[in-house]
Amino acid sequence: VQLQASGGGLVQAGGSLRLSCAASGRTFYSTYVMAWFRQAPGKEREFVAAISWNGRDQYYADSVKGRFTISRDNARSSVYLQMNSLKPEDTAVYYCAAYTVMWYWGQGTLVTVSS
Prior knowledge:
Elements: E1 2-6, E2 9-12, E3 17-24, E4 33-39, E5 46-51, E6 58-60, E7 68-73, E8 78-83, E9 92-99, E10 103-105, E11 109-114
Parallel strand pairs: 2-11
Antiparallel strand pairs: 1-3, 3-8, 4-5, 4-9, 5-6, 7-8, 9-10, 9-11
């Protein structure tokens, strides 16, 4: 599975960004759990959000709950992360990931939130 994330950039605090991640290389994308993780400078990678294979269940880290929304489009083999009310502490490299019997990781996309 290859995962290609995009949509990162520089935004002011309080602003919004939408990250996208497209999967390729396999034909069973619709069965995967999809997730977003992030890694801030000098910190370990942390969980941000996840979504079940059919999109019915979403899970969020407490730090982003109510501000971020994860969604997916299985017809497009894509997962999205809508990020609203961004804070400087959201600054990180964001990674999308897919889980079947193991985790597959995409390259990261940098999100920088200025105060």
